[in-house]
Amino acid sequence: MLYGQMYGHMAHSRDDCYLNVNVGGFKQRMDPHMLKKFPQTRLGRLLCCSSQEAILELCDDFSPSDMEYYFDRNPLFFCYVLNFYVTGKMHLVDGLCVVSFVQEIEYWGIKERHLDCCCSDKFLELLEAVGDKGWDSEEQSVGGSDSSSVQLSVSEDNMDLYEGSWCGDTRRNIWIHLEDPGHSTLAKSVAVVSLSAVLLSIIAMCVHSMPDFHELDENEREIENPVLTVIENVCVLFFSAEFVLRLVVAPSAKMFLCSPLNMIDLLSVLPFYVTIVFDMMDEGESTELENLGKVVQILRLMRVFRILKLARHSAGLRSLGATLRHSSREVGLLVLFLSVGISMFSALVYFVEKETEESTLQTMPVGWWWATISMTTVGYGDTFPVTFPGKIIGTLCIICGLLIVALPITNIFQKFSKFYEKQKQLDLIRQRTVKTNYFRPLQE
Q1: 20 to 30 A from 172, CA-CA: which of 27, 223, 322, 395?
Q2: Where are the alpha helices (DSSP H) in 16-143?
Q3: In which band, very low, low, confident or very high, does the pLDDT at 164 lie, cut at 50, 70 and 90?
Q4: pLDDT given for residue 369 in this prediction
């Protein structure tokens, strides 16, 4: 006779039949009627086992002679499990890590919804704290893949890559001066020159768009201002030399090229050289090359990427980029909420305004535009409802937009604040680490 059949026979013949449970040496007799209240838990599923193999899938060992189930788990936590079967509510365990608590309740088949109201808020706070620490830990462990927290440059592991390499001490010395402005006066001067070149290039690009600085050649074709061209060429040559030098002295070329900030540096100078190639190809008037002018203009617009080079010198910009990367869920919810609201209010305002000749909201696309600028509180004023029902809908649209936009902003701001504080701590640690590694050869 199988155990399940034997147990079923005993359960029907005797009301005092108990399960003998041994959890890490702690033995307890449990009433099966109490376990039947929670059939989806691990102990509740034992009542449905019809073979010893099925029993061993749920427990670590089973003694048929003593009818005892053995579980190699924390006996102190099992006391809270017993209380759960008695009261139907689960409570947090004092002194137990929230991650271990989650693992334990998952093992016993207890759901988080069974947490009592006195512990649910604390449980969510602990989980959020663990998530923040995991987020910071991920930022530190990613290495070159996220330059917002670790810039590949300063960890001791990367410094060790110079050991045994060609010109290791010289390359490490140059790398430190390029990466850590606080290391010395020379390093600070290099950072100031690099930042000045970025700002100068951005200013030149803005000035170039002003009609007063446009010039014409003999054929009345527009050409670039010679002074601005010289400034542009000097800045690009400086950026190119800086990129090549940092690539040569980097502890790992692969990690260097995979860094987002270094990819931005490459994108900021690449359009310049591609434009030169297209200009050389566009010497003739062939029809095939007529569209190259538009391509060149697009490539020149890519110079705007240089403004992102400021992130190398700004902890705030690096923190902002990392915050957006880690707030994809909140941003996705924001877009979803706005899409639902825009769709709903655009349909409503179109329905009440379509019969009014004075109104410009005569089509659904115009209604989408109006709902978008209203929910985001931009309000250009180029289109607006003129009827009384339309104004009521507009009021509700603006109020809902304020509420929807405000919902995820709090979480995003909290992440930014925490990451910014973490970034400043990492900068201090980075400076101490660099100085230690820099003076290591002298001490040896």
Answers
A1: 322
A2: 32-35, 42-46, 52-56, 75-87, 98-107, 117-141
A3: low
A4: 92
The C-alpha atoms of residue 108 and residue 78 are separated, in whole angstroms, by 9
Side chain identity at residue 132, one-letter code: D
Is the CA virtual torsion 192, 194, 195, 197 positive or negative?
A: positive
How far lies 159's CA from each of 167, 320, 441, in Å? Answer: 13, 27, 12
Q: DSSP assignment of 336-403, as one string? A: HHHHHHHHHHHHHHHHHHTT-TT-S--SHHHHHHHHHHHHTT---SSS---SHHHHHHHHHHHHHHHH
Residue 141 one-letter amino acid: S
Question: How far is it between the farthest Cα atoms of the chain?
Answer: 111
Give how far Cα 428 sits from Cα of 127, 183, 289, 315, 432, Å. 28, 11, 53, 12, 6
Binned at pLDDT 50, 70 and 90, residue 443 comes out as: very low
Q: Find out whether 31 and 17 touch, Cβ atoms under 8 Å.
A: no
The total number of residues shown for the chain amounts to 444
- Helix 168-179 / helix 388-438 crossing angle, nearest 10 deg: 150
Token pair belonging to 133: 């620490």
* Burial degree of 108 (CB within 10 A; 0-12, 13-18, 19+): buried
CA distance 151 to 178: 12
Which two tokens mark 27? 């033995």
**How many CA atoms are closer than 13 Å to the CA of 372, on its beta-carbon side?**
10
pLDDT by residue (tens digit) across 336-359?
A: 889 999 999 999 999 998 888 888
Note the pLDDT tens digit of each residue in 50-95: 888 888 889 999 988 888 999 999 888 998 899 899 888 888 888 7
Q: Which H helix or E strand runs over 29? A: strand 26-30
CB-based contact 84:110 (threshold 8 Å): yes
Q: What is the rounded distance in angstroms from the CA atom of residue 428 to the CA atom of residue 424? A: 6
Distance CA 228, CA 300 (A): 14
Angle between helices 168-179 and 226-249 (to 10 degrees): 130
| Residue 395 Cα distances to 28, 341, 349, 358, 368, angstroms | 64, 13, 11, 19, 16
CB-count burial class (<10 Å; 0-12, 13-18, 19+) for 209: exposed
CA distances from 351 to 220, 257, 347, 393, 394 (A): 54, 55, 6, 11, 13
